[in-house]
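Reading a protein record of the kind used here takes little practice once its layout is understood. Each number in the token line that follows is a code from a learned vocabulary of backbone shapes. One such record is shown here in full, so that the layout can be seen directly:
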Amino acid sequence: MENLRQKALLGVFWTIMEKFGRQLVTFIVSLILARILSPKEFGLIGMIAVFSALGQTIIDSGFGAALIQRKKITHIDESSVFYLNLLLGALMTALLFFSANFIAEFYNEPQLVLITKIISFNLLIGSFAAVPNNLLSKELDFKTQAKVTLLSSIISGFVGVYMAYNGYGVMALVIQIIVATFFKSVFMFVFSKWYPQLKFSLNSLKGLFGFGSKLLMSGILNTVFTNLYNLIIGKLFSAAALGFYNRSNEFYLLTISNTVGVIGKIVYPVLSKVQDDNERFVKVFSRGLKMLAFVTLPVMFGILAVADNLIIFLLTDKWIESVPYLRVLMLMGAMLPISVMNLQALNAKGRSDLFLKLEIIKKIIMALSIYFSYKYGITIMLLSHFAFVSFPSVILNSIYSGHIFNYGIIKQVKQIYKILIISIIMMVATYYLGQVINLGITITLFIQIAVAGILYVGLSYLFEKKFMLSMKDDFTQFSK
């Protein structure tokens, strides 16, 4: 157990380096690009996001998670999945390439023909890295993943900025995406030192398919509905409106979604390793949930409070229309700690059937929410998602956890309620501080951030001192 804990702590550090390092580089590059390019050009890339993401989900086919979840796998299993990924990558690339005219007509944006055809090759290039990446996750080797993603992000960032400054417009964003994926695939093999055998086994795939197939269906549903707002906003509103939404969504991904991804990426393989020991399973789950809430909630509520000043400071006021979208997205983020932890637990227990069932139910609710709210505008559509999708998902995702490992929603809320209250207090104080003082955008923003940090740490030390000290002990042990 101690060795597993040490690996998890190492994993936290290197996953933070990978997730936030990559996103920080990408974010800095995007800030520069946002000052050069227009919201419409960012919106054009967002228009094909759903098609590209769907292709990537099909390429993985759930086999990546199956390789991680299964306790014992052979090199033939790994190689078979690798060659399947390549085959699916080629098929998805061809499908997206020859759908370029249809996609452009759907959005009534002729520029999308060339953009779609170029980005289609991203699917084939990315398929090379899927298996070695999953195997590194299985072994909790997030240090190697951090090296790969940081290097590929830095190289592609330089390329994107150079092209934007030299007047390539939206093509700067397109080539940046391709370059990032290419170098990630190359570096993944260089650093992981994993190479496939010239062997392929249908029996191996069949053995993994029982678990992976359900995750594939869940992944397709999740990918379509995660990118559904891109589809709807791009179709019913405009490329510029989609650009504003995507800009706010990028803030969301950098903060809340990636914070959840850090802990979730660590917790899933650790939970999988102790899936047969329910007592240890609950300890890992409850610890992960509280750590996730402790990191996620203050970031979410803090950004919600300073959203207007933050957008103007970083992007200038030409992006001010992103503010209401950003605030609603951060509100949605409050639901993620419980939802994500429960879904990770179901997968770790091998219950991908329940995972799929939950995804279907939630997607039906989401479709109804969008149908009844889109006519009232983007902000109302997002608020409807929070009220009728994000919040109920917390209850739905935790129902089965109570039955499977006896740690239901009441116990989970008790685990994090103090952190939630502290975060809300911090948010309210920070927001009203920004309304009271009038020292200019920059000074006001930095005062708000400083006060928010002091208030959150102080209240946490007062009411969650034991937990904070235990986290300190964890990282002290880690640093030795």
In short: Residues 1-236 form one domain. Residues 475-480 have pLDDT under 50 and may be disordered. The CA atoms of residues 437 and 444 lie 7 Å apart. Residues 278-315 form the longest helix (38 residues).
